[in-house]
Amino acid sequence: MRTTTTISSLHASSSISVSAASEVGMVRAVNEDSFLVSGPVFLVADGMGGHNAGDQASQAVRTTFGATFTANVPATTDDVLATIQRSNDAVREIGSPAGAAPSMSGTTLAGMALVEASDSGMLYWMAFNIGDSRIYAWDGKDLVQLSVDHSAVQELVEAGVITGDEALEHPDRNVITRAIGAGESVDADVWLLPAVNNQTFVMCSDGLTKEIGDEQIGRILAEYAPAEGGPALADELVAAALAAGGRDNVTVVVLESFTTGVGNAEEDTIERASLLIPEHTQPRT
Amino acid sequence: MYRFTPGPVGSTLAVVSGGRALLVRFADDPATIERLWLAVSAGESLQSILDVLTAQGLSKTPAFALVGADSDETALNCIVRGDIALHVGARDGEHPIDAARATTWVETRVSGVQTFSAGSVGSGTSLPMMAGAVWASSLSWIAGGSVSVAAVPQSAPAVASAPAPAAVSAPIESEHTITAQTVTGAFLDEVASEGAASESAYDRLFAEETVMRSIEDAAVRPPGEDEHAEAPEPSTGDHDGMTVLTSDIAKLRSGRKSKASRPVDAPPPAPRYLLELSTGATEALDGTAIIGRAPSVSKVSGGTVPKLIAIPGNQDISRNHVQFTVEGDTVVVTDMQSRNGTTIVLPGKSPQLLRQGEAASVLVGTLVDLGGGVTITVGHE
To answer: How far apart are CA A79 and CA A204, in angstroms?
Structure first.
């Protein structure tokens, strides 16, 4: 699916195009992934747990977020953080069917929300992550992973015990260390990036990243040519993961934004947005 | 357990809590003592405590001996500066740590620690101490008393008061495993049984099943705190290979535990601070604020997000230029590796340049100059 919306604050305005796709894959019987594409919030959730609790968990996150935010009005960081906690409560309330063994469900959450700074009216992209779904930033040339997985192998990679390639084959590669629903409260990692000019973000479940690497994701983004009636970017990425084996559910949300505004626009002439490019401050003379 | 020998006011100060101990020489300065106590009692990283000690710059940094229990719970990280000597007794022998000739400090790590002492061990009765800040001429610690250096900072008092004779040499790794299992027992068991029903090798190859193992709580927990009463008995141990943590991960995680377990309910600051910008804006300062040309936040967690204050279009100012943080009842100004630095002018003092990354605690009335004609004044309501 593809949608286009415009979200404005007092001083800035963001035009957002989104495509999203989700497939059960070639092996699994149930799609436990969910996504939400409803400005100002865009997210992917990958549920887990037996007795269909996994899909209920990811759907609970989608429902909680979907019911919280007013369409096409910027969010605030506090609202997003509170909604993450309420999603956690909602997932923990999911019961087991009568007669079944007690089950515990959980879900990952990787999302972006367009938020407005309290006083200045500047717009920011707030990225938030729990688990091993991912958020990437794409600047038209390079793909950079913005989120950091909460996974066992990520901790081993950071400690230098194993390499990134070894992580893909490691027996613990499917062990995550943080999830919505796993504890009484949940702690998301958060990033805030000024919303300026053109920005592209990819949110996805691990069914994408474990089938096709960053390099192939980048290549698909670079070679994509939009065509009337043709597949959207999210469709192409999901199709590539299915072609590579599709061993897990695959969900992708691709978000492209173009932001203009008083504070934001001035920035445009100096540099491209985001954390991804080194500082270009002029030395004082 | 810790012991100290009382010393005169304004001589050397011992600050002790849980797995952190500090002996530092400096004048009677309530604000600094307060900040040291906050950092030590919150079980902050040694780097954070060093930040407080070095806040006035290296030349004004006092002599100190700082020790912190390591994640594997018998190793001690030791940082010593100046003429306060530290003497560590470990299973493999004695380790005197002398920094008298170092221009900065000496940092070392000793494992199998059984005792340590800092300062001038001479006459005078040594008194027992669990946590606190006291004027002391010496500070020591002996294993086998009731205090384990291993204590999780947050729960230190509870651990300290309970008899735990074998705490230092206990096989910690197995405890981590069991605790992790206790916490998420129901879920893990279910995953385990699923794995047994279908060939786990098949699962791994073809069905990419994600499982959650919480290791947040893989730590010493005071009895009665575990709310998962339905969880299996800890004694079930690692009944299959899938439910145990690798020791690597447990170690890694416990190393960061002190940070994760920082108490979030620190007492709110008495006055509410304001940042008055020369651009005309006034912003309330509650927790942390980041000011710059196009400020951003990279990977924060803990449920709060810093406030971002943008000063667009000024090329003299870096994108993330300066950070203001309320710590206890002081405001700390930190230059964020800005290109051109940050100048602070405390009331009645001459201007002082914060170099890239440098931090200083400031008073109300302090002027912070980012360059390019932009200044910020710290005020309060």
So the answer is: 23
Q: Which of B211, B246, B312 sits opposite A48 (nearest CB)?
A: B211
Q: Using 50, 70 and 90 to split pLDDT, how confident is the model at B214?
A: low
Residue in chain B lying closest to A267 (CA): B313
Q: What predicted TM-score, i.e. pTM, was given to this entire model?
A: 0.60
Q: How far apart are CA B19 and CA B366, in angstroms?
A: 35
CA distance B135 to B364: 29
| Cβ <8 Å between A284 and B340 | yes
Chain B, residues 316-355, CB within 8 A of chain A, namely 316-319, 338-340
Residue pair A223/A217 in contact (Cβ under 8 Å)? The answer is: no
Q: How confident is the model at residue B144 (pLDDT cuts 50, 70, 90)?
A: low
Cβ-defined contacts of B90-96 (< 8 Å, 24+) = B90/B114
In whole angstroms, what is the distance from residue A260 CA to residue A118 CA?
18
DSSP one-letter code for B153: G
DSSP state of B268: P
Q: Give CA separation, A177 vs A7, A187, B208, in Å.
A: 35, 11, 16
Q: Which of B194, B210, B323 to mutate to test the interface with A (most CBs of A within 10 A)?
A: B210
* Most B-contacting residue of A122, A150, A192 (CB-CB within 10 A), to test interface: A192
- What residues form DSSP beta bridges with B170? none
Q: Encode pLDDT of B88-126 as tens digits.
A: 888 888 888 888 777 778 888 888 888 888 988 666 788
CA A79, CA A40: separation in Å to the nearest integer?
12
Contact (Cβ atoms closer than 8 angstroms) between residue A233 and residue A170: no
Identify the CA nearest to B65 among candidates B52, B82, B48. B82
B313 — contact with chain A (CB < 8 Å)? yes
Q: Which residues contact A121 (CB under 8 A, 6 or more apart)?
A: A9, A10, A11, A12, A261, A262, A263
Q: Which residue of chain A is at minimal alpha-carbon distance from B372?
A: A284
Which amino acid type is present at position A255?
L
Q: Which residues contact A83 (CB under 8 A, 6 or more apart)?
A: A64, A65, A68, A69
Q: Are A172 and A153 in contact (CB under 8 A)?
A: yes
- Mean pLDDT across chain B, nearest whole number? 72
Q: Cα–Cα distance between B365 and B379 in angstroms, integer?
A: 6
CA angle B265, B269, B275 (to 5 degrees): 125
| CA-wise closest residue to B154 among B257, B71, B42 | B42
Q: Do B186 and A104 touch (CB under 8 A)?
A: yes
Q: Is B373 helix (H, G, I), strand (E, B) or coil?
A: coil
Give the percent of chain B with pLDDT over 90: 20
Q: What is the DSSP string of B138-151?
A: EEEEETTSS--TT-
Model ipTM? 0.79
**pLDDT tens-digit profile of A4-33?**
889 998 888 999 999 999 999 999 999 999
SS3 category, A206: helix
Q: What one-character-per-residue DSSP string does A26-38 give?
A: SS-SS--EEEEEE
